[in-house]
Design brief:
Layout (H helix, E strand, L loop, with lengths): L12 H16 L5 E6 L5 H13 L12 E11 L2 E9 L17 E5 L2 H15 L3 E5 L12 H12 L12 E7 L1 H6 L3 H4 L2 E5 L8 H18 L10 H8 L3 H18 L6 H6 L4 H18 L4 H9 L4 H6 L2 E2 L2 E2 L12
Parallel strand pairs: 1-6, 1-7, 2-5, 5-6
Antiparallel strand pairs: 2-3, 3-4, 8-9
Helix pairs in contact: 1-2, 1-12, 3-4, 8-9
Length: 344
Amino acid sequence: MNDALPFEPFKHSRFEDTIGLAHAAAVMARPGDVILIVGPSGVGKTVLLDALMDRLVGEPELWPPGDRPMVRVDLDVIESGGLMKAVAYEYNRALSNPFMTPELDPLASVRKINTETALRASARSLAHARGVRYLAMDEINHIQPSRPATASNRLDSLKMLAGSNNKNPKKGDVVLILAGHYSVLDLLRFNRQLHRRIFVIAIHPYSDLSRSDVLEWERILVWAEGVFGFESGMLRSINDLIFEASFGCIGHLTRRLEFAEAIRTSRGDDRLTLEHVAMAAPFASFMEDMKDEIHGFSQLTATSDWGGRVIARMQGPTKAEARKEKRGRRGRRKVGARDNVGAK
């Protein structure tokens, strides 16, 4: 799981634009819809999910007694005895939790799950028993060990959670808010059941080819200089190197600077310098892997206007969709010739 940053996350322009879209999608979502927050590693998915939770349901201390509008579950994979096991961490946010026994700290409880069926059952039971509106799950790519042979199992899990599985076709009872690696998108593009119900919120890294992105990145560096105690302009003087080592992702930038701070502390130096930053540079193999990951994300999201679906719902139903909502003696009926009688 991602460790909490020791400072307030910086509300940069990419964050503000994306959370506005995510909030609009979640507010308009119907039970059984899926809000999927995707992006490459370090782009800020978890920070966005935390902020989205606060915007949707507020602080738990302000909830009415007995009201639990959201359940938050984080997924992780641990290695035990040579086997990979899925672990679900449910953050009950200081609320009583009758389903999971606290083992980590007073604010979190954990249940170790080693089968995908148990994970699905756990998430569904939480949603049903609590009567919540939102079920938020982070690191959704860890819903099963990442082996090609089990990719279909991951898809079945998402379909089950959304209530659109062939074996359990009833309507979903919650709005799913999932965050994770963009590889999950590959499973959803060609699945008609989920494709119609999913709203993808893609978070893109900053690009050095965009003038507005370059200016915003400089503003981020000004913020980082103040937070980490650099002299004014020090990070901006090596902007090209910092940008390359951070891949345009604020998450990687803060990790590099945290590593530099750890090096400074271990050496007993008074202030952070560019020498510490250089020593915290990532390995060449890691940089190549991240470049491939960001390229793959750009290629995948370029094939469809995922965000356009959220905007389309904000504008209301089309005429064809409105006709489908007409009701007869037997409930909903398909659009047919009778709908066009008398049409101009």
